[in-house]
Write a structure and sequence with these properties.
The protein is of the alpha+beta class. The chain contains 5 helices and 9 strands. It has one domain: 3-Layer(aba) Sandwich (Aminopeptidase), CATH 3.40.630.30.
Length: 253
Amino acid sequence: MVVICAATFLVLFIRHHAHTSAITLSWHEITPQTRDLFKPTLDALQNVYVEAFVPLVKPDVYKHDPRLVNIPPEHRSFVEPKVVAEITHSLQSGWHKKIDSIYADLFTHRIAAAYVVVAKDHSNNVLGFALFTEEPMKNNLETRLLTITEGSRESIARSPSEHEEAYVWLLAVSPHAQHKGLGKSLLFSVLDHCPHIKKIYLTTSASESNEQAQHFYEHVGFKRILKGSFVVRKEDDSAFERAGKIVYLYQKK
């Protein structure tokens, strides 16, 4: 029997430091039955996802894209718009695949439940969101982990109940709303609204350009337990590739 949160829609008002404008966190359960109704919200979240992740993807693209490697700074402005447009398109495509995958996993009962918490300002603008699934991290690793460079599979202990673990599929905060505590509020909202959750897992890129995100997770209390290469499907679905990732765990006390 699936354990779900006490409500499918809850709202919490929070304030950040000296800022006077209230931020609302709205909590939603994702179900196949409400997909059409929830589509406008997901479309709005896609915009925040792209806005938040383009700056993270750009440094790695600049290192490897033949159009940008060793290009004189005075010429970069001519190439950059096209590169950013391609990154944006790739992220938009990836967003739809992530959402389709969650709905498919809910329909087949591979995951027990899925939730999204959305942060908005007083003008109803979306500032960020976190996307969670209830699934054992052990199962997640079995299908995606290829090789391990730090830690071991034994560091991911299977919980007595699959409903005790939440996996963070995505955390995205608009650049102008970062460094104000919003990311932390979004991450830990799952503990407030789903008291049965005892562990929160997430994976993030192991690249040097992602060190800021790594420091953030460690700063808010996540423990680095594993590093390795993971299966990632290419955008055109033609093949798989390896991606270096770090697995983090937060355990409720």
